[in-house]
Design a protein that fits this description.
The structure is a single chain. This protein has 181 residues and is α+β, with helices and mostly antiparallel strands. The chain has two domains: 7-112, NusG, N-terminal domain (Alpha-Beta Plaits, 2-Layer Sandwich), CATH 3.30.70.940; 133-180, Roll (SH3 type barrels), CATH 2.30.30.30. 18% of the residues lie in helices and 41% in strands. It contains three helices and 14 strands. Strands 1, 2, 5, 6 and 9 form a five-stranded antiparallel beta sheet that branches. The longest helix has 14 residues, at 18-31. Belongs to the NusG family. Residues 127-154 form the KOW domain. Pfam families: KOW (PF00467), NusG (PF02357). One of its GO terms (molecular function) is structural constituent of ribosome.
């Protein structure tokens, strides 16, 4: 017998009941001994700063209103426990066949809510030095050229000086958009 792997599923709830469903589901998992099949219940939120009437305050914003994410091993028993939790209207999927969230989608969500670190961006090798002349090859600034004034290899950005309306102006662009003259 092959062991099923645990996957993330999206559960639809009544509007505004996401936290209540999470609490109800956590309680049902414990009381019904389902800890070996239902692992995590998540209401993805992010912190936002709202400025209103000149005052700023932090609020917790639900990323997916009316939805809760559940990490579980899908079988009839675990499906029944989740599906019959008060406030749950159903799983996302076709009929009685819930569709799991892909690994890349759940990774993206976990990074967004701060539960997982993002994969490091690839290092950019910049093949120019301060004083070299460069030209923007693509993007909205295509055709502009001038000498390099600053290089930021960590960001993959290069600043160069160009004449804009008769004034020398520093312009920062991605290195990938430049060509060395």
């Amino acid at each position: 017998m092959t062991e099923k792997k645990h996957e993330w599923f999206t559960v639809q709830t009544y509007s505004g009941y996401e936290n209540k469903v999470k609490a109800n589901l956590d309680q049902r998992i414990a009381s019904m001994g389902m800890e070996n099949k239902i692992f995590r219940v998540l209401v993805p939120t992010e912190e936002r700063v709202v400025v209103k009437d000149g005052k700023s305050r932090r609020i917790s914003h639900k990323l997916f209103p009316s939805y809760v994410l559940v990490e579980m091993i899908m079988d009839e028993q675990s499906w029944y426990v989740v599906r019959h939790t008060p406030g749950v209207t159903g799983f996302i999927g076709a009929g009685n066949h819930p569709l799991p969230i892909t690994d890349s989608e759940i990774d993206e969500i976990l990074v967004k809510i701060g539960e997982k670190e993002a994969a490091p961006a690839p290092k950019v090798e910049i093949d120019c030095e301060i004083g070299d002349r460069v030209r923007v090859a693509s993007g909205p600034l295509a055709g502009m050229e001038g000498p390099v004034t600053e290089i930021s290899p960590g960001k993959g950005k290069v600043k160069f000086s160009a004449s804009v309306f008769g004034h020398d102006t520093e312009i920062e662009v991605d290195y990938a958009e430049l060509e060395k003259l």
